[in-house]
Structure formats: C-alpha cells, structure tokens
Amino acid sequence: MLVEQYDLTREQTKALCLPLFTEDYIPQPVEFASPPKWHIAHVTWFFEEMILKKYLDGYVEFDPQFCFLFNSYYAGVGERTKRFERGAITRPTVSRVYEYRDYVDASMRMLLASNPDQDIIDLVMLGIAHEEQHQELLLMDLKHTFSLNPTSPVYSSSRDLMEEKDADHGWVDINQGQYEIGFVGQGFHFDNELGRHTQHLAKSQISKALVTNGEYLEYMKNGGYDDFNFWLDEGWAWRQENNVACPLYWRQIDGEWWHYTLSGMRRIDLDAQLAHISFYEASAYANWIGCRLPTEFEWEVASTEFSWGNRWEWTSSAYQAYPGFEIREGAVGEYNGKFMINQMVLRGASVVTAASHSRASYRNFFHPHMQWQYSGIRLAR
Amino acid sequence: MLVEQYDLTREQTKALCLPLFTEDYIPQPVEFASPPKWHIAHVTWFFEEMILKKYLDGYVEFDPQFCFLFNSYYAGVGERTKRFERGAITRPTVSRVYEYRDYVDASMRMLLASNPDQDIIDLVMLGIAHEEQHQELLLMDLKHTFSLNPTSPVYSSSRDLMEEKDADHGWVDINQGQYEIGFVGQGFHFDNELGRHTQHLAKSQISKALVTNGEYLEYMKNGGYDDFNFWLDEGWAWRQENNVACPLYWRQIDGEWWHYTLSGMRRIDLDAQLAHISFYEASAYANWIGCRLPTEFEWEVASTEFSWGNRWEWTSSAYQAYPGFEIREGAVGEYNGKFMINQMVLRGASVVTAASHSRASYRNFFHPHMQWQYSGIRLAR
Amino acid sequence: MLVEQYDLTREQTKALCLPLFTEDYIPQPVEFASPPKWHIAHVTWFFEEMILKKYLDGYVEFDPQFCFLFNSYYAGVGERTKRFERGAITRPTVSRVYEYRDYVDASMRMLLASNPDQDIIDLVMLGIAHEEQHQELLLMDLKHTFSLNPTSPVYSSSRDLMEEKDADHGWVDINQGQYEIGFVGQGFHFDNELGRHTQHLAKSQISKALVTNGEYLEYMKNGGYDDFNFWLDEGWAWRQENNVACPLYWRQIDGEWWHYTLSGMRRIDLDAQLAHISFYEASAYANWIGCRLPTEFEWEVASTEFSWGNRWEWTSSAYQAYPGFEIREGAVGEYNGKFMINQMVLRGASVVTAASHSRASYRNFFHPHMQWQYSGIRLAR
Amino acid sequence: MLVEQYDLTREQTKALCLPLFTEDYIPQPVEFASPPKWHIAHVTWFFEEMILKKYLDGYVEFDPQFCFLFNSYYAGVGERTKRFERGAITRPTVSRVYEYRDYVDASMRMLLASNPDQDIIDLVMLGIAHEEQHQELLLMDLKHTFSLNPTSPVYSSSRDLMEEKDADHGWVDINQGQYEIGFVGQGFHFDNELGRHTQHLAKSQISKALVTNGEYLEYMKNGGYDDFNFWLDEGWAWRQENNVACPLYWRQIDGEWWHYTLSGMRRIDLDAQLAHISFYEASAYANWIGCRLPTEFEWEVASTEFSWGNRWEWTSSAYQAYPGFEIREGAVGEYNGKFMINQMVLRGASVVTAASHSRASYRNFFHPHMQWQYSGIRLAR
Fold first, then answer.
1. Residue D168 neighbours by CB under 8 Å, 6+ apart
2. How far is D289 from chain C (nearest CA, A)?
3. Which residue of C has its CA nearest to A145?
C-alpha cells in the first residue's frame, strides 16, 4: 500500500513532465523559482539522502555529486549549490536525472518490500508529501518561466487551470467561543500543523465564495492600485517600486484584459476566481471593499461550510509556531520551522495541488509580495 | 492639567537636546533613522497639522513649507520629503526650528486654555504620546550616528543607560486558561492596544530576569553565531550577508569586549542586561539554550510578576491587528495599522522610553533585523 | 567563393556545437553572457534581417517572432527581449533553431547565386565576421556556464586551449616617429579600424612574449592582490568588492593551483601564457613589475616583430573613435560606435577566435573588469 | 611671496564659507560629494600630513584622530573613514575645525619663514592647488545639497554663476600637422600635464562659442532625450534608468524652464552657456547636431583662439597617461594616476574655479555620467 502510494506519486511527477521538451527543464529566470530538472532530481535526492543511505543495507549512492547539486536548504546535510545558480547546471542531463529516479525507485521498492519500521514509513510519507509539494512548485515555476517567453508557450491546451467558479455565495457565521485548532487524526501531516490547541474566536462572518476576476477588475477600475489609503505601508512601497497595476500574468491588449495561463494567452473570465495576487494586493482589496481577510483559525473552523481547493487563500495570520511546536532532530527538522518569519499563512489548496495533499489543517506560507502561487481572496468581516 | 502635561513633554524634548551641538542635529547616515532636527520639528508639525490648523480659530501656519519638510509617513496630508533625504535639509536652521516650537507651543497653550472638547483632548494626548515616542527615537538615532564616529562622542558622561541589572531570578508560572488581552482603563493608549479580547494560553513559564551580557558572551564563545541550526533561515542569511558576529555597538579591542554607549566606549558589564540585538539573534539564542521567546500574550499576562522597563523585549508574536481593530478616519488613522506586516512585537519599555509612556499593554514593533533599539531577551519555555 | 566562405563559417558554428547536449544550449547565468541557442539563432537572424528581407525577392520570413527573440542591441530594428531574460526562452526548441538556420542558409545560397551587388556582398562579409565573433563568444560563454557547475563538464578532452607558450623572448624596439595606424588593404574590416591616420610615437620597447602563469603566480605570492599601490583606484575597489585573488577559473585545491578549462579541471602550466584576467589585474601586474601596458598604436606598429594570436592582449588605450570615424546609416551603424565609452582596447586574437578573423588592425574591446575573454598581458616600457 | 599665496588661498576658502550656517557644513547626501566641513579640514590635513609632520622640527600634531577623519583616498597614509560616512561625523565641531586651520596656518607660516628648500616649496604649491580644487568642489557639493532642499536656499543673491555668455561665434580652423601637447613653462602644474609630447592632428574646426541653453532646449524639444540613435549605448541605459530628461538642476514649473542656482531658483537664460550636463548628454547633443566633441589635443591647440574659463568643457578624450607619465613616490603619488580609467577629460575652467587655477594644459576629469560639475559643450567637426 505504501509502495503503491509511492509509485503513484512518482508517476504523477513524470506525468506532469510529459509536455516538456528537454529545453524546458533547464531555466531558472528568478531566484525564488527552480528549474524542472532540479525539482525532479531534488525530490529523488530526498529519498536517497534521508532514507536509502540510512536504512537500506548495501545501498550504493547513485552519484556522490548529486547530494551537492540537488540539496536545497538542508544546511545540515552539507554544502550545496548556490540557489541562484541552479539554472546554470546543464549536466547531469535530463536523461541522467531520469536514470537517477529509476535507480532510487528500484531501491525504494526493495526497502518498502522489507517490512520497514514506523520511522521509515514516516519518512517515506514525508518524502511523498515533499514530492507532492514540488509537483505544485514545478507547475508554478514553469508557468512563470513560460510567461516570460514572448511566444506564450502552451503547456496543456486542455487544462488552463484558471476558470474555476464558486457555485455558492453569501456568508458563513462563526460564533464566538473556543475552538480546537490544528491537525487531528491518523493521516499524514506536517510538523507545523501539530500542537492542536484552543483558540478563542470572536463572532465573525466568512464568505462562501472567493473574489472573482470581475469583482477585482471593478476595484482596479475604481483606482484600487492608486490609493495608498487601502494599502499596508510596505505593500504600497512594493506596488510603487515594481509598478504593479494588475495581478501577475494579466496583460491589457487593445483595451481587453488577457492573462497568461498554462494553456497560453486567454481572455479573463470575469466570473472565475481571481488568482496570482500577493498578500499586499489581497489586503488592499479587502480594505477597499470594507472587509478584511480571515485569520487562519477562522478559516479552519468555517472550512466545512464552504467549498475550497481551487485556490490558496491568503489569511491575515503571520506564519508562526503553534504552542508546543517542536523541531525534529537532524536535517528533517529543517522542514518548516526555519521559515516562521516574514511569511503569511495561506489555507486551502489549489488546482495544481496534488489531491492527496489537501486538508483543512494544512498551513501553506509565502512572503507577502509573492504572486506566482495560485493565490486568491476569501473575505471575512 | 493637560497643558502641564503638554509643557512637560515639550520641555523633556528640549532637555534631551541640551548636550547637542548644532552639528549633531543634522545627519541621517542610515535610512531608518532621522536627524534630531527632523524629530523636534516633526513632533511640532504634528500639533500644528493635526490640531492647530483645524481647531484654533485664526491660527496662522508658521511656514507653509514646513508641512512638506516635516511630515513623515502621513501620505494623507500630502507630498513629503523623501525619507532618505532628511539629512540634506540644512535649512531651516536649528534655531528656526526652535522658533517653530515656541510658536506652536504658544498657540497650543491658547487652545488648551479655551476649554477644548474631547476630540481635541484626545488628539493632544496622541500628540504627547507621539512626541514621547520620538524622544526615544531621537536618542536611538543619535546613538547610531555617534557610533559611526571614530572619536566615540560622549552624549552624557553620567548616563550610559547600559548597566541595568535584574535583582530577581527564576521563572514565573503561567497556568493554562483564558485571559483577557489588550488595553483596559481610562488613560492614554494607542489604537493597536484596543480590542480587548480573550486568548487561550497553554501552561508555560517565563523568566523573571532578562538575559545578561555574560550569558550572551557564553553563547558567542560557544559558536552561537556560527551554527545555522539555531537560526531562522532568513536570520542566518542576514547574519551571513552583514557579517554579524556580536550585538550592535560591541567591539573587541585587544581581546576585551567593549561597547559604544551614550557615555562613550565602555567595557561590557557581564551582569548587565543585554541590549541592541535583533529578533533573529534573540530567536537563535533562545533556541541554543533550549527555550523560546514568549508570545506577547504570555508576556502581558505574566508582566505583573517580574520587573520590566529597562529594555524592550522581543516576543515571538508577529505584529498583527487585535480582533475588531479599526483604522481611524483621516491621517491620524495611518498611525499604527499601516505597519502590521513583517514586524515583530516587543513588549515592556526601555531606559530611553519616557516614564509616562510605559504600560503592560503597550505594543512596540520593529523589523526582525533591527538592532538600534534598546532590545533584549526574556526567555520562556 | 563568397558562398563557400559563407558555408564554411556556418559549418564552423555547427561544428563548435557538436559536443553540446540540448541542455547546454539554454542557460544564461550572467547578464553579460548569452545562451548558445541564442548565439546560433542571433547570427542567423542577422542574415535574415539585414540581407534577406531587403534583398531577396519573395523571401518569406521564417517566423515573425524570431526578430523579437533574437535581435540583440539593434534598437533600430525594433523591440527585443530583455537581455537578462534570454535564458528563460526555452521555446523555440534547439531543433527549431537549427531548422531556422537551414532555411536561412538555403535562401542565402539563392541570393548569393544571383550575382549580388557590392552592397550585398559587403553585408554578407559583415554577417560572416559577425558570426565569427559569436563563435568566440559562444565558447567564452559556455566556459563560464560550465565553470559554475561543480561537476566541471568537459567540452573537449583534446583541446583545453590554455597551454600556449611563447618561443621567443626579449624586447622589440620601437623608434620615435610617425606611424600610420588603422586598416589598409582590400579585405574585410570593421568600421572602427577605418580612418587610417598618423600617430606620433615616443621611443619605447615592447615584450616579445606574453606574461606566463608562472610569472603571475610569483606576483600573487608577493602579495600583488594585497597592495593597493599597484592598482587603479577603481581596480582596487573591484578587487575588494568581489574578493578577487586570482585569475578567473583558477582554484587552489590542497595547496596546488588548478583552473577550469574546456577540457575540465587542469593543473596550471607555469610556462603557459596567462589568461582570463581583467584590465585592472593586467595594469596592477605591469605596475608591480615596473613596466606598463603598450598603447594600441605601439602594439600595431610592433606587431610584425612578435608572435601573437593565442590571447587577446590588453592595451593601455581606451576604446575611442579614430579621426573621421563615421557611423553607417541604419541598424548596421549600431555595430561598434555605440560602445566607445568605458572600454579598453585589446589587440591580437585568441585560441577561440576564428582564424580568418585575425588581423593586426583589429580592435577588440571589453570593460576593464571583464575576465571571461581569453585575455593576457604583453608588457611595454 | 609663497606665504602670501598660501595666505590668500586659505583666506579664499574661508570667504567661500561666509554665507554658510553651521548646519550647512555637515551633510553628505550623495557618496560622490563631501560635506563642507570635511573639505576645509581635509585641505588643512594635507598641509599637516604631507609637509608639517615631515619638515617642521618640533611640530606637534593638532589631534591624532584628524588624520583618520580627514584623509581622503590616500591609502598610503593609513586607514580612513569610509567615504560615504563623512556626513555622520558631527564632531569635531565646525569651530574646532577652524581652530585646526588656524593652528596649521601658524605652523605653515613658521615653516615658510624658514627659507624652505625646493621640495617643500613644491609641496606647498601642490597643497595650494589642492585647496583650490577643493574650493571648487565645496561649491559644487553645496549646490547639490541645497538643490535637494525644497526651500531652494540662496547661497549668494548676487552671484548665480549661471549667466555667462559668449561674445564670439563661428569656427576656429585647426590645420593638419604635428603639435606639442602638455605643460610647458615654470609655474605650477599637475603630474598629469607633464610629458610634453607630439600629437599629429587631422584638419578640423572647433567652435568659438559654447552651446547655449536655448540651443539645448531646441534639442530637447526635438526629442533629443527620446531617440537612442544619438546616444552611446551606456549613455542611453543611464538616461533610461535615471529617467534623465533635462540638465541637472533644471525644473519645469507651469510650462516654464527654471533651474536651481546658488542664487536660488532662476528662469533659464536662453542665451547663457549650458551647464551641468554629463558626457553622455554632451555626446548625444553633438551627434544630433551633426558635429562631435573635440579631442583634448584639438582643444589645447586651438585654445588661444577662443575665450574659455566659465565652464568645464567635455572633450572626446578618455583620461589617460601622457607618454612617460611617472607616478611620484609616496602618498603624493596617489594624486592623479590612480584615476586614469573610465573617466573623460574636461578642459578649460569654470566660474567656480580659482582664478590662479586655470591654464590651457589643465586636465580635469569626471566619469561620463557626472553632472554636478559646471560642465558644458564646445562642438568640433
């Protein structure tokens, strides 16, 4: 069963890469993104480094240089390539990286066939979740790279991932009181969801539907990007310095609004959910319309009463440790805790999130100026 | 009575400037600090702009250019000098700014003698609190400027403000349960303290004493600045990029540790409270010693059981709105809410904080890399 | 004959790319370099844009987007991709670019078979020279990209291009007097070589041999990189800021000096000609040894009396127009004149320069901090 | 006689500072400029460090810290304050620096009364020339600082230094032939003027008058700042990045062109000589009008046949060593040679240049993007 889940995840990654040409695996045009080749090697390295090297007797490392090349932020594992030089690494070739995947997969199957103990199972589950995260990052990064190409390449003509709509509208009531927050149950979860604890919430309401492109366009037409009153001070500085005047990937062509999607350039669908906005933009929009963003606790409490899963949703909560948060020993411990500063929590999931990777207690996080994730707005008041 | 409080505050500002030469009023060597002349003009401008222009009949503006010159972030009031060019503004001269102060003070006394209504009283209270904040900033900024001078100028030979010690040690117990957080009472308070609300806290302990220079030196000697394991990812990047290896103002001279103080260069007192560290450093130290920083809620709840007031204390809480936070109308509304992103809350007060400016519900905030405020560490676990 | 020269040049470019994998065609890790794919497309675009579109009746553009994608600095031709985003352009694929080359080649052969007039011939000659320049750039850029790869990829095991030695030593005497400088003759030449004119030279001497790795290592061991006295003010700032302490590509491994070459990591050959140094380094070395760099006029005058051609040689001459320099009409006129500021002239040729691209009047030029060209030092006094 | 020249120069410096308030002595808003206090201390330090310490028996240094504080680029003399922190140095006070001047002046008079030998006389002459240079820099820097002040401070109401006009027009003919270039005679000169040598010039013409504000405005109205064809590649990048669209200090107010002068804001005088333009702007203007800038050799040869001295004039010559240029031993040797890279020569003198500091062989130099010197355009063809 675990082996099936493992195989499925590994197959999904490969399937996502089917539309790619060799050339597409290489570029890293911005420091916050990574090349597809790096993603597919890095998730493999995780299994090799964290599991096979320690737990599979007689395992022979595929290539000693790969640890240096495909480690990411795990400083505990040793030196690594400078993040912004990932796009320079043309060798090993893409085929060689696929050989690496096959080699590690074969070894993982051997290990999984040997009745592994719970420690190993936990790490494999973590490795699967880790790969699912990188599946999403791979598509986010690819979209960003493709968007810089004047030819607007098409990743998939059938799947533009940008036309999701809400059926339900109106508001969910949240009553004042105490609520238990955080992961509960048996399945996989990250360390940052643990520490189930009590939160006292005041009375509030949260919207059943996400903000649409049409609603946001209305805000744009009313000068939302030009009135500092609605913006956080640093948000306004960001908007000014980068001359931001619409969501990432939107472009006005002959007076009409289009956006780059993984299906190429498409007309904006006014009824579809808005995406690719920063926290700064989300916060300004919420102020303009006289609402606010929900806290992550409000979101979690109300999440059974609205539909979610097509867009990550900015919350008003800074990404911080739950009470009793413990950092795990060793390199695995670097997973989440290191990033608990200057980032905001997003809840939900997106159309590029692996289905098995979606749960109400999930805490995603990005810096407030980031736009390349599929992020939208749910209002509260 | 209000007029006495007004006069007292205005006198305190002048008293702080007594040791200054005209030259000292001018420089702005870093963007985050401001020249003393700017501070003493800006606090005066606040009274003129927010109060006199609106509420004193027949009031004649002292100089129409001052609004442009001495406005700060109040975008609502109009254009203003670029922040980083404040140090270029030699005219008006210092004496002219003191004339401005006298002129505004005379007008304010007229207004306060006229039985002003509650709106005005509230604004005057805010103006006084605002000036008290800038009294502290003035000394922080001056210390930073003086610290760059190889001659280590002495501001006050009697008051080095860096030798405060805790008498009490051990831990305060915080019981699990619900607590009311936020300002309560009649006195002055900022908008960000309002919204008294319930917080549920888990059981914890908080230290009665702040971390001392000696304890921190021990950590330095044990390689605290060289082991990324204790640091947040962005903290480690900051430490590397800026080559930080000790608190701001510390210097090793012939093997001994000294620091620049407002009394000039002094030997480090090992028993005194540590100061001038960033949140990143505070967090790494807490990790190293196996503790953590308290949340701002834990701090507020326990604050009656330890002595505080000599150092701002980093908490683990991001600076965010309390439930129901409302932004006030107009420029005054820009006071606090605009900054609720990427900053961490500090609680307490410092030796350069005005005495009347200190209360348990006070929420100070700085970016996590800032060191020039008098900030120290109180541990929790 | 011209068609043969055309075909030969085009074949040479392809031959240079034989050892490349598809992946190697993509990256642009630094702004001053370009991806191999861009080079092979851009030189093709030059023929299409400057010649075929204007002079071949009925010529149909291969792909209208290519003009935007593969234009370089020719602002006169229209909009172009931002220079630093060339590495993001994965589509068109490498094979598509080779199709483009074939298509343009076929059309060029038709044009060349049609008895073209002198204007066309001149442009074809320019296009050939242009492609030869990019052949050199392609190898320079590839070496730079490969050098960032911890696996030190091998481009060609047989040709490391870094072991050239001088047979002849001693000094050439240059007599005081008037000399004619600049291109003379019938063959191809660039606009910047024209304007043959008189220069009066003082008596001097110029070395027959280039500085060797061994001589430079001696300088390094004597603290050449640590004594500002030998350096230009901006050179010293560059050296400090970038922490430069050896030629580009040199690395000290276990106390021994190695360097990255297109044959992979190799031990430094002490007797071989030094390469990959900036003008700042060349100037400091010359000062240290009590000599100077030659002017480009001295170099040209004496060039018949020493052997040259393995390394570009820094001169002490700033890159400026010869008297009577004329900018040609249209986009072709942007060729050289635009760059006559802040660059220094190099004379000679290098091991990666096309053989037919080498002549004594040739004026190459780079910014004084650039190191990635094959540049060495010839002393004068 | 030398003592009189010394006294006169020192008095001139003081006279230039008469209109300053203490505040004006402090700011350094940009790295390329220095505070007035620094200038008046630095020129004094030159006499103390280079002359008194070595040649006056029993001389006692005024204050040992001043060497560190007021050294500039003379790395040979030891550590010095970071250039961009000069504006932070409020102590020593301005009066203390004037005491320093008096102390050094008294000592210098003693030395000069003692029948000094030629080495000392040469150094004193150099010190005087050095102070004259800083007199000009002081006014340039002050103008720049004042220009940032929204109140447009007036340095001198009678002397705006920006209304100089040429009486003579037309062209001077330069015949083809050999000319001797460089300093000749007995008076003071800098090392960079030495090495009198032969230059062969082609036939050319040089304008008798400088370009006027009116002529330049005509160019602006014809889109000179918007057509890349006239610009050097790096000039165009500079213009785009800094959004330059007029000379430094020009401002359009209600459709009229004004400029900041040391007499405050003044209307542009269309007939007056243009000033405060960069080499990039000068070069683009010359291209636009179908001329070019003269070489420094053409300028020197023709300089007897036109009037000059109100504006530094950009030449097309890069700042490089004359043949046989020798760097003097010791710190004095750092005077000029260190800067012979990436700068362009200006000839002439300006209205803020000391009268005794003006000669036809003088080689001034600035980076091509600099605008804060009084620089104008003389055309050649």
1. D208, D209, D306, D307
2. 14
3. C88
Could you tell me the two tokens for C278? 């900036």
Are C69 and A150 within 8 A, CB to CB? yes
Of D29, D85, D92, the CB nearest to B85: D29
3-class state of residue A110 by DSSP: helix
**Residues in B touching D93 (Cβ below 8 Å):** 21-23
Q: Is B77 part of a structural domain of the chain? A: yes
Per the CB < 8 Å rule, is A235 touching B202? no
Boundary-marking domain end, from C114, C147, C180: C147
- What's the pTM? 0.94
The backbone torsions φ and ψ at residue B48, rounded to the nearest 5 degrees and listed phi first, read -65, -50
Q: How far lies B374's CA from each of A354, B137, B163, C380, D28, in Å?
A: 47, 10, 12, 60, 27
Q: Is C60 within the bounds of a domain?
A: yes
Are residues B232 and A341, on separate chains, in Cβ contact within 8 Å?
yes
D240 and D334 co-located in one domain: yes
Same domain, A182 and A143: no
Whether residue C285 is contained in a domain is answered as yes
Within 8 A of D19 by CB-CB distance, chain B residues are none
Q: Does one domain contain both C188 and C337?
A: yes
Which of C113, C147, C181 is where one domain is finished? C147
Asked if A204 and A348 sit in the same domain, the reply is yes
- Look-up of token digits 């691209």: C357
Which DSSP symbol is given to B215? H
Residue-wise pLDDT for A229-264, tens only, equals: 999 999 999 999 999 999 999 999 999 999 999 999
Å between D67 CA and nearest CA of chain B: 11
Asked if residue B212 lies in contact with residue B270, where contact means CB atoms within 8 angstroms, the answer is: yes
**Whether A and B touch (3+ CB pairs < 8 Å), yes or no:** yes
Q: Tokens 């009656």 — which residue?
A: B304
The average confidence (pLDDT) of chain D is: 94
- Gap between the Cα atoms of B88 and B83, Å rounded: 10
Q: Does one domain contain both D236 and D137?
A: no
DSSP C247-268: -TTEEEETTEEEEEETTEEEE-
D31: in domain:
yes
Alpha carbon of B145: minimum distance to chain A alpha carbons (Å): 25
Q: Give the count of beta carbons closer than 10 Å to the beta carbon of residue A65.
A: 15
**Mean of the per-residue pLDDT values of chain A:** 94
Q: According to the model, what pLDDT value does residue C77 have?
A: 63
So what's the pLDDT on residue D1? 83
Shortest Cα–Cα distance, C340 to chain D (Å) = 7
Residues B180 and B328 in one domain: yes
CB C186 within 8 A of CB C359: no
Mutate to test the interface with A, among C63, C90, C265, C372 (most CBs of A within 10 A): C90
Task: Render pLDDT for C34-76 as a digit per residue (tens, 0 to 9).
Answer: 999 999 999 999 999 999 999 999 999 999 999 889 987 665 6
Q: Which of A322, A341, A363 to mutate to test the interface with B (most CBs of B within 10 A)?
A: A341
Structural domain boundaries, residue C80: 2-147
CATH number at residue D342: 3.90.1580.10
The tally of domains found in chain C comes to: 2
Alpha-carbon Rg for chain D, nearest whole angstrom, is: 21
Residues in chain D whose Cβ is within 8 Å of chain B: 21-29, 37, 65, 68-69, 81, 85, 87-94, 145-146, 148-151, 153
| Spatial separation of the C-alpha atoms in residues B30 and A106, rounded to whole Å | 57
C234 SS3 class = helix
ipTM score = 0.94
Q: Are C280 and C216 within one domain?
A: yes
Give per-residue pLDDT as tens, A98-140: 999 999 999 999 999 999 999 999 999 999 999 999 999 999 9
Residue ranges of chain D whose CB lies within 8 Å of a chain C CB? 73, 75-76, 178, 197-200, 202, 204, 228-229, 231-236, 279-280, 283, 316-318, 320-321, 323-324, 338-342, 368
Q: Are residues A97 and A211 in the same domain?
A: no
Q: Is the pLDDT of residue C78 over 70?
A: no
